[in-house]
Amino acid sequence: MTQISVSETRRMFRAAKDALASAGLRRPRVLRGERTEHPFEAPELRTERLLLRPHRAAARDAADWFELQAQPSVTEFLPWPERDRRLSARHLRDRTRHVRLWQADDFLALAVELDGRLIGDVSLHLRKVARDERSVEMGWVLHPAHGGKGYATEAARAVRDLAFERLEAREVTAVTDARNRRSVALATRLGFVERTRRDCARQTDGTVEFALDRDRWDRARREREDRPRRIERRTPQGRSHHAGRERRAA
């Protein structure tokens, strides 16, 4: 009799959960409780180099999405089953439906586009709805060919800020495979802090949970906004504020 390891069993379980969630098979809305003040529709966000927008079932996007999912370094750390082109196209079509957050368990997925090509995905999963404890979970994936260029940070930062500014979240969380050092480093760059055992039940499937609360995010935002003013005050007479910012960014 073939025996299945514990880790493989967990991976299969996570893959099954992902397949159900991707297909929109969540709790019936009547069981999900209250709603946000108004539906939050998927936006289009433009960052310095990227376009974040709802997924499309176009042929080019389908090809890019399949190519991304075929990367071993992607599937190693995500609970996604192996998909051929047909299943990958179906998965992409499922993702095109995730364009609204309104009730607990709603899911919103944004394509990360660079120069007209789909290179990744950033998602928000509404966990808690009540305004004083509203919580969303972030997820991200990027084609490894585009790693090391700051694209993942740029895209995830924009969606993190979106969650706090427009969805008015009190907390944003992220769950990643503990072995995925790049993802752990990204969470840290975004200001997330690993939850302690006292904060939550420790993950038993090899993942680790990070969290960023609104107060911590707001303090960091104010510090970023105040930094150019401090630099301007220190700039020697005759040198422009703009030049000071260029030097700092170099």
Automatic annotation (TrEMBL):
Residues 221-250 are annotated as: Disordered. Residues 221-235 have a biased composition (Basic and acidic residues). Pfam families: Acetyltransf_3. Residues 50-215 form the N-acetyltransferase domain. Transmembrane segments: none annotated. InterPro entries: Acyl_CoA_acyltransferase, GNAT_dom, N-acetyltransferase. Its EC number is 2.3.-.-. Residues 239-250 have a biased composition (Basic residues). GO terms for molecular function: acyltransferase activity, transferring groups other than amino-acyl groups. Keywords: Acyltransferase, Transferase. The keyword NADP does not apply. Gene3D superfamilies: 3.40.630.30. It is an enzyme of class 2 (transferase). This is GNAT family N-acetyltransferase. It comes from Herbiconiux sp. A18JL235. The lineage of its organism: Bacteria, Bacillati, Actinomycetota, Actinomycetes, Micrococcales.
